[in-house]
């Protein structure tokens, strides 16, 4: 029965891919519109694909280097599991594939969305949302497929008699985690590279076009406008796809590993198996419910804006409610120990995600006081807009942090049977909460991903001269996407924090395996020997003295906090530099190519695309490598306590910093929109100019540095896990 | 012999106060200049004093509330040492007195400095620097006096037979720490209130005066100009005085407490006594060397700018070199165990302080590339100035964090005899490093405090119409102060981090005392009972499970990181709001009082002073109370592990955030100055306007939120220490 239940996982993943293919085909059947629209869409597609090719080339080199390193460690020195190099590669491949497929769909969908919007708002929504759904379903489908494949493969090849039977699942699940590192690495490059690309183009286009030349957004006379549209695709679509693929798999794998670890001492292989497949099953059911939710997003032909919003909200809420019911059902069917309370942990995860999403909406939407007051601060110029935005962003960290803290404690207590000492099951509960949050990713990602499609459709409409009405509709779709995306962002960042915590426990498991591989049989706790096999999390904490009085732990924590800031600083500066090149180029074209501004000559779009591509590539390498090198170096210098300090310091500071940057950026964006809606003088007023400065500053906040921090947190953990063998060997040596 | 050595401490403190009085008298003998100068200085003095009176009134209410709370805890429920209410009051009183005396001197000195600068640059420096020295010497003098007084008093009144002899010094030193909480509370209100005051006035004056009306800084036609000058006094002088009083005493007291704790099990009361007075002796010798350093700052009559800089640097460097030599000598005389290596910890502290200072200078001075590039980013407008400044600030956190980490490890290893397991002595080493850093505070604070005096002198010169030449001289003095102040800031922030760590250990000691007071005799470590008296730091860590896998610790850390951001957000917003009121008032006066801009009518300065005063008072209460309430609430909900998580999370995030904000703010300030020196178009150019926006944003970064974080870090620790008894009682209950 339980074995049968497992097959639901690959089945759901195939189902997701089928529906993705179906939605893709449906979208392709739509007309791309006028020849001008086709031409522009082709230019954007070409730029986006050429960028992605370049990015994959560089990432390929990094992967090659890492695979050689892992191979030496695995086959040369034996401090590494022999499956790691291959698992690492597949994780990277699938993560990249998710981004690629999502972006391919998006670039085909933008002109079609614009064309559909010529008919009605509703038609535009249908095309854009279904295309977003392709991305959502590809990500969850490929994710679960990869997980199923590896689970079945490792189950078949790892001999049963390894140590004790309960160790087998432990080894399987922690090995699978290493494909998470491949996904994280790919995701980091995609997010950082894409984020730099899109914001260099956006900031560059805005600064010269909107501010200096006074032409509207997406105006075809602006040489950077194609690059700007390409940026939306490579940053907001491909980058986000790779990112969430990684979050999704990371949370499931970490929770599975925790499930295996929680039952390692009981000898109860059946219950262990159940704990391992529970997160996968929740995710599988989540896929089915997401598809139902996607189909539930329907409106009649002459729907108003409010109807559309309700319809989208209905789809996501339906999925969320159903997943709660389904979780109780599936864990009861599975007869997992303590199934009722563990199901409650799933509910906790969903609630935390929703609270963070609502808080994001409150602080960043122009329907509420904070952003309206931010607009008002523009009356005293750009400086007060910046000061107030930073203040707002910092204040907005309070609710999400409190929500996560309550979530940590509640899901820990529920799963551990209200026993703080039951660390194994408690941490499992935290992981389960993260899985619950991401279980309906199929639909939440759809509501997130269709925003950039609508944005691009708007660009296409503007450049093709489709007129005010169409542009207004695509803008409405875009702003609708911003509102629903707030929840999606809440889920992404909240799950990163919870997954980060779950990964800490996996790190300890990997240390256990590393010690065993090196022939260490005992660790010492308070002078007494405890067998490595039987040692609890507590025992490891005490053996390595991972307490808050150990200077190595404290040093690691300072370094972790610094990593978050350093990483943000590097990406912020990268955007600044790349944008400056773009500004120079746009100014040069305005100067050298006569007749651009009168519309008589066509600007050299490709040159701007090339500049963004080159800038993003040059700039993404250093921050990404630092994220990989830091945990390795910390491990070599400060050992296990230092690494754990680094991870926790990076996690707590990085989480808060990420929320600060995302919310400040979002609020600046909408404060500008609020003014553009006619408040405080409207477009063209001094207040508007002041809020445009805020919006420009906010661009790298919310679309480059902020979201990259999510990945940084998890990538550092993943690197630490994969390198645990080396850390252990080095400290014994 | 050792008892005799102790008397060096009160002797040095009296010496410091005598010299402070001498320098004050010397300054008062100078002429205040023309009647106009006298009048302006009187107006500034009146505004500053009236603000301080108001602030002390509010702080008085907060103190009253806290003293009642402590009295109930101490005399009602017996969960508190009975000396706490009184010690708390004296700490608050002396901290306030330091600020008051420093500010009083500064307000008398500004006109005299301006008048002296009419003769020569050198004469101006002499008056300003000696007045700064009054502040430096008052702070260290009152600090050591308070410490000596309490040490002698408690030594006399606490019976010898309390527990074991070695426990007596432990109780004395941890009781003394509670006067640190009084100082911290006073300092926080002074920094936050003063910081909001000064930046509300500064930002308000700049936004309307410089940007809108186009009149120069400190122009008498600007109604906010007196408030701006008052702000320099209440924020940069009184606030800084209270702040550093608290740092100075905090580091000495925490280290003394660690010294007592390190020898608690040895029964060696003599060595324990030596370890307790060692930090006091280092500080006492530091006072004498500071006075020597102050006298070494001499120049001949027609000294150039470069000579002055060299002369100041000579004074501080001389003190630093001498303190190294003197430390070895004094610890050798004291025959402290391991004296040579412990002296090395002092050197580590000094080196870390200097490295942070140099790094600050590199990132924020217009003589180096980072700030020059920041100016250049103004070519593409204010948005890129902000993006680049934030990037620069974030990058600049790397060197200080690495320096602190190296410092932590090195001073720990030196003092512990290269034994990581010797936590008591290791932490003592970290404390000693902090004391080393602050030992020459007498002179470093003098070089820091004379900056605002020179700034005010410039304001006075401008408003009294003393002409271009005098203004140029005071500007030169001000900018000279900025350079030397970088080192001072490095010392302040570095010592906050190290003192924060040392306070963690004191928290554990206070838990031990709390348990004893409640009659708990044993704690349990791995199932075995250990007597509370004999338990080591490790034992407490394991008893309370203060490991990185405990969800309470993790929750505390998230909350701690959040506290740093929340606190900054509140203070940033406070400045924004208060500045907006100021802007409204200045605009109103320009509109309603005819003839202000032509110089025919006098603006209503007092009204602006009143607005700043009211704004600062209203806004300072919430952030300050949050800092006090957070550790209490965390203790009640999450117990000891939660509190330690909160403190460490706040420390690591707060330290990095503080450096980021201070350096970004400093760099923006100097980037504007670099443009004003004639680069990228000079004053009035578009680049200049862009950098003015950066400077305005930077004001609350570097003068309100950033420096307040230093105090937040320590105040939260102090509150936790004072409330430890309650936390323990509550968790037993």
TrEMBL record, chains A, B:
It comes from the Bacteria. Coiled coil: none annotated. Its cofactor is Mg(2+). One of its GO terms (molecular function) is potassium ion binding. The chain crosses the membrane at residues 6-23, 58-77, 83-106, 127-151, 171-190, 245-264, 276-297, 309-333, 339-360, 381-414, 426-446, 490-508, 553-572, 620-638, 644-664, 711-732. It is a multi-pass membrane protein. InterPro entries: PPase-energised_H-pump. Pfam families: H_PPase (PF03030). Requires K(+) for maximal activity. GO terms for biological process: sodium ion transport. GO terms for cellular component: endomembrane system; plasma membrane. Its EC number is 7.2.3.1. Its main location: membrane. The keyword Magnesium applies. It is found in: Cell membrane; Endomembrane system. The record marks 485 as: Determinant of potassium dependence. Sodium pump that utilizes the energy of pyrophosphate hydrolysis as the driving force for Na(+) movement across the membrane. Homodimer. Belongs to the H(+)-translocating pyrophosphatase (TC 3.A.10) family. K(+)-stimulated subfamily. This is Putative K(+)-stimulated pyrophosphate-energized sodium pump. It comes from Bacteroides clarus. The lineage of its organism: Bacteria, Pseudomonadati, Bacteroidota, Bacteroidia, Bacteroidales. The gene is hppA.
């Amino acid at each position: 029965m339980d074995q049968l239940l497992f097959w639901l996982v690959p089945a759901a993943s195939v189902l997701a891919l089928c529906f993705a293919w179906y939605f893709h085909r449906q979208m392709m059947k739509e007309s791309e519109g006028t020849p001008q629209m086709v031409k522009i869409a082709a230019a954007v597609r070409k730029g986006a694909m050429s960028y992605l090719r370049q990015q994959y080339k560089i990432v390929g080199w990094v992967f090659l280097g890492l695979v050689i390193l892992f191979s030496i460690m695995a086959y040369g020195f034996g401090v590494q599991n022999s499956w790691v190099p291959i698992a690492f590669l597949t994780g990277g491949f699938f993560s990249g594939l998710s981004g690629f497929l999502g972006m391919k769909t998006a670039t085909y969908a933008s002109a079609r969305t614009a064309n559909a919007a010529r008919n009605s708002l509703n038609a535009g929504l249908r095309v854009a949302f279904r295309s977003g759904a392709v991305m959502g379903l590809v990500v969850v489908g490929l994710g679960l497929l990869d997980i199923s494949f590896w689970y079945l493969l490792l189950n078949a090849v790892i001999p049963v008699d390894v140590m004790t039977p309960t160790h087998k699942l432990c080894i399987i699940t922690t090995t699978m985690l290493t494909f998470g590192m491949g996904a994280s690495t790919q995701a980091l490059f995609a997010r950082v590279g894409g984020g730099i690309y899109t914001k260099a183009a956006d900031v560059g286009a805005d600064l010269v076009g909107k501010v200096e030349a006074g032409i509207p957004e997406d105006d075809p006379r602006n040489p950077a406008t194609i690059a700007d549209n390409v940026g939306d695709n490579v940053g907001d679509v491909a980058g986000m796809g790779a990112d969430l693929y990684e979050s999704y798999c990371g949370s499931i794998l970490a929770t599975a590993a925790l499930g295996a670890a929680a039952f390692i001492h009981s000898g109860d292989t059946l219950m262990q198996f159940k704990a391992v497949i529970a997160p996968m099953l929740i995710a599988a059911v989540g896929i089915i419910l997401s598809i139902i939710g996607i189909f539930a997003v329907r409106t009649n032909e002459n729907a108003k804006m409010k109807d559309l919003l309700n319809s989208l909200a209905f789809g996501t809420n339906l999925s969320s409610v159903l997943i709660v019911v389904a979780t109780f059902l599936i864990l009861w069917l599975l007869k997992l120990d303590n199934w009722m309370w563990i199901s409650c942990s799933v509910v906790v995860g969903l609630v935390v995600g929703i609270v963070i999403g609502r808080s994001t909406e409150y602080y960043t939407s122009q329907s509420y006081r904070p952003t309206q007051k931010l607009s008002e601060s523009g009356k005293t110029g750009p400086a007060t807009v910046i000061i107030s935005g930073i203040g707002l962003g910092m204040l907005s960290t309070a609710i999400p942090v409190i929500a996560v803290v309550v979530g940590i404690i509640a899901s820990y207590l529920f799963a551990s049977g209200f026993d703080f000492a039951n660390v194994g099951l408690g941490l499992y509960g935290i992981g389960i909460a993260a899985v619950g949050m991401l279980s309906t990713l199929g639909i939440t990602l759809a509501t997130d991903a269709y925003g950039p499609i609508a944005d691009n459709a708007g660009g296409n409409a503007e450049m093709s001269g489709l007129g005010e009405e169409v542009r207004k509709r695509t803008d409405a779709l875009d702003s609708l996407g911003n509102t629903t995306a707030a929840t999606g962002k809440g889920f992404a960042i909240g799950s990163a924090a919870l997954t980060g915590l779950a990964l800490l426990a996996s790190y300890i498991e990997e240390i256990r395996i590393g010690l065993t591989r090196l022939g260490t049989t005992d660790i010492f706790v308070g002078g007494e020997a405890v067998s490595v096999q039987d040692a609890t999390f507590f025992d490891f904490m005490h053996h390595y003295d991972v307490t808050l009085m150990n200077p190595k732990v404290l040093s690691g924590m300072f370094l972790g906090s610094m990593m978050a800031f350093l990483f943000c600083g590097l990406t912020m500066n990268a955007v600044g530099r790349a944008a400056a090149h773009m500004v120079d180029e746009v100014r040069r074209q305005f100067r050298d190519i006569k007749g651009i501004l009168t519309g008589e000559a066509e600007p050299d779009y490709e040159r701007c695309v090339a500049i963004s591509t080159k800038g993003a590539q040059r700039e993404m390498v250093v921050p990404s490598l630092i994220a990989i090198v830091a945990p390795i170096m910390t491990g070599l210098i400060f050992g296990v306590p230092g690494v754990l300090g680094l991870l926790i310091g990076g996690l707590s500071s990085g989480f808060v910093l990420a929320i600060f940057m995302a919310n400040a950026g979002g609020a600046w964006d909408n404060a500008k929109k609020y003014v553009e809606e006619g408040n405080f003088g409207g477009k063209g007023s001094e207040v508007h100019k002041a809020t445009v400065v805020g919006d420009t500053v906010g661009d790298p906040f919310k679309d480059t540095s902020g979201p990259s921090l999510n990945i940084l947190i998890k990538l550092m953990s993943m690197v630490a896990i994969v390198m645990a063998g080396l850390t252990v060997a080095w400290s014994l040596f």
